[in-house]
Amino acid sequence: MDSFKRFLCILAISVLCIFLFTGCISSKSTSIITSSKDKMLVHYIDVGQGDSILIQVNNKNLLIDAGSKSSTVTSYLKKFGIKTLDYVIVTHPHDDHIGGMSSVISNFNIGHFYAPKKITNTNSFKNMVVSLNKIKLQITPAKAGEKLDMGKNIKCIIVAPNNDSYKETNNYSVVLRVSYINTNFLFTGDAETLSEEEILKKGYNIKADVLKLGHHGSNTSTSINFLNEVNPKVAVISCGKGNDYGHPHKETLTKLKDKNVILYRTDLDGTIILESDGNKITKR
Ligand SMILES: [Zn+2]
Fold first, then answer.
1. Cβ contact 214:186 at 8 Å
2. Which of 117, 135, 198, 203 is buried deepest, with most CB atoms within 10 A?
3. How many angstroms separate the alpha carbon of residue 73 from the centre of ligand 1?
4. Residues 113, 115, 120, 123: is their CA dihedral positive or negative?
5. How far is the CA of 76 from the centre of ligand 1 (A)?
6. Residue 79 — φ and ψ, nearest 5°?
7. Which of 151, 100, 150 lies closest to 124, judged by CA?
8. DSSP code of 176?
9. Sign of the C-alpha dihedral, residues 211, 217, 222, 224?
10. Distance 263 CA to ligand 1 centre (A)
11. How far apart are CA 123 and CA 119, in angstroms?
12. Distance of CA 238 from the midpoint of ligand 1 (Å)
C-alpha cells in the first residue's frame, strides 16, 4: 500500500511538472507572438513638453512629430532597432513638435513625409527643410481626406486640416484617425476648438477608443462637442512635468473625469505604449 501511495505521489508530481513546463512554453510563445505579428503598438514617447508618437503595425512604422530636442526621439527609435519610417507626419511647425525632426530625417530611411502647408521662421523649421533637401525628400501636403497605406487591416485617414489658412498655427495640425480591425485611435496634434468644429461639420467618423488630447491638454482644445463625438475610453496627454503653460488645464481634466475616461500622461507615466490586437487595447 505504501509503495502504491508513493507511486501516486510521484505520478502527481510528474503531472504537475509537465503541466508547469507546458504552461511555461505556451506563455512564452504567446509573448513571442505579441511582440511581432498581428498586433499594433502605439508609443506615446515621453519627450517632455511636446509630442512624438510611433505607430508600428504590419512591419511598418509611422512617426507623428519628433518632440523638441534633437536626440530624444532618434535615440528612442534606434533602441527599438528601427531603420525605416514608412511615414512621417509633422502635425504643425512648432518647436515642441519638430525640434527633433532634422535628426530623424538624417538618421532613418523615410518613405513619405507629410506636413501641413505652413512655413515658419524658426531654426527648427529651417533645419528640417535643410535635412529634407539633403536627401531630396519632398513634403507631401497633408490635408483632410488623404489616406495612408499601412498594410492589411489598417485604415489611416487624415481628417484635418480642412482649410488652407489659419490665424493660429496650432489649427494647421494634422489630425489622424487610425483604425486597426475593431480598435480606433485619434491623434490630434495641437488642433484647437476651431479645427475640431470643422472636423465635426465635415462629418468625419472620429469615434475612437483612444484619444491623444489636442494641445497637451490645453483648454483651447478638447471642446465638449468634440469629446462627446470621439467618445474615448482612454485619453493620453503628452506634456512636460511642471511646464510653463500649466498643461494639462484643469477644465480639460474635469471633462475627462466627468466622462470616466481613463487618463495616461507622459509627465506622470513616462512613455506610454498601448497594444491593440484588433479587438482589445492593453497598456504595456
Ligand atoms: Zn505643442
1. no
2. 198
3. 15
4. negative
5. 19
6. -60, -30
7. 100
8. E
9. positive
10. 19
11. 12
12. 9
Per DSSP bridges, beta strands 147-148 and 154-160 are antiparallel
Note the pLDDT of residue 70.
85
> What single string gives the DSSP state of each residue in 73-95?
HHHHHHHTT--EEEEEE-----H
β-bridge pairing 40-44 and 272-276: antiparallel
Rounded distance from Cα 216 to ligand 1 centre (Å): 6
Q: CB under 8 Å to 100, separation ≥6 — which residues?
A: 47, 52, 66, 67, 68, 69, 70, 71, 72, 73, 74
| 17-37 pLDDT tens trace | 333 333 332 333 333 333 447
Taking only the tens place, the pLDDT of each residue in 43-53 is: 999 999 999 99
Q: Which amino acid is at 54?
A: L
pLDDT tens-digit map of 69-121: 989 999 999 999 999 999 999 999 999 999 999 999 999 999 999 999 999 99
Q: Closest Cα to residue 240, out of 42, 141, 102, 99?
A: 99
Q: Which residues pair with 148 in a beta bridge?
A: 156
Structural domains in the chain, CATH included, are 37-283 (3.60.15.10)
Where are the alpha helices (H) located in the chain, listed in sequence order?
2-35, 72-79, 95-98, 101-107, 123-134, 193-202, 224-230, 250-258, 266-269
Do the beta carbons of residue 156 and residue 176 sit within 8 Å?
Answer: yes
Gap from CA of 97 to ligand 1 centroid (Å):
6
Q: How far apart are CA 61 and CA 81, in angstroms?
A: 11
